[in-house]
Known about the structure:
253 residues; alpha/beta; TIM Barrel; eight-stranded parallel beta barrel; 8 strands; globular
Amino acid sequence: MSNRRPLIAGNWKMHKTGKEAVEAAKALKALVAGVTSVEVMIAPTFTTLAQVSAEIATSPIALGAQNMHWEPKGAFTGEIAADMLVDAGCRYVILGHSERRQFFGETDQTVNKKIRAAVQSGLSPVFCIGESEAEREAGQTFSVLDKQIRKGLESFVLQDLQALVVAYEPVWAIGTGKTATKEQAQEVHAHLRAELGQMFGADFAQRMRILYGGSVKPSNVKELMAMPDVDGALVGGASLDPETFSQLVHYQS
Ligand code: PEP
C-alpha cells in the first residue's frame, strides 16, 4: 500500500457559464464535505476561475486551470500566465492535455516550457501524456510515452519537480467511452514510475502521483483505483455533474 494521497481531478473543459460553474462547485462542496483521504481538484474555464475559487474557498477542494502560457507577461493575445492563475486561486494547472496537443499545436517542447513556468510560480503541474490508438496498435505505447516524458521533463532537476503530477491519458480513451482495462493502466503506470525512477531516482518515483484519465466513471473507478500504481484520476465527462463526480471521489465506499 503506497502512502501517495489519491487525487481525483475534474477537467471541465469548455463547459459551464459562471452561474453554472458556481452552482456545480457549491453542490460538489457539499457532496465531498469531510473527505480527507482523497484530494479533490476541479479545473473550470479561465473565465470562471475566480468565481469558483470564491465558492470553494472554505472547502478542501483545490482549484486548477486547464492550460497556461509559459511567459510571465507580454504581447500574447488570448493567453494567460502562471501568476495570473495563482492570483485567481489556482493550485494546479493541467498541461499537455491531448486536446491541446491535437487542436492547438502543443508540443513536448511547449509543454516543457509550461511545466517550468508553472513550477516557478508555485503551481502543481498535472502533466498529461498518452498514446494514440494507432500507436498502441503498432506496439509503440511505451516508446511514445517515454519520449513525451523525457522531452516534457528535459533539463529539470529533482527539486523542480516536487509538486509534479503525471496523468496517463491514452488518447483513444478520452471522451470515447473506451477505458483502458485496469491491467493496461497498471502496466503503463508501473512503466512510467520505473522511467521516472531512472530519470530522477527511485525515492522520487515512489512519491510521485500518476493519475489515469480516459472515460473514468463510477462503474470503473474502483477497479482502476485498486491498482497499486494508479494514484488518482483525471476526469472529463464524468466531472461535469457534481453527483457523478462525487461518486468518483467516494470510490472507496
Ligand atoms: C480528459 O479530458 O482528461 C478526460 C479523461 O476526459 P473523459 O473523462 O471524458 O474521457
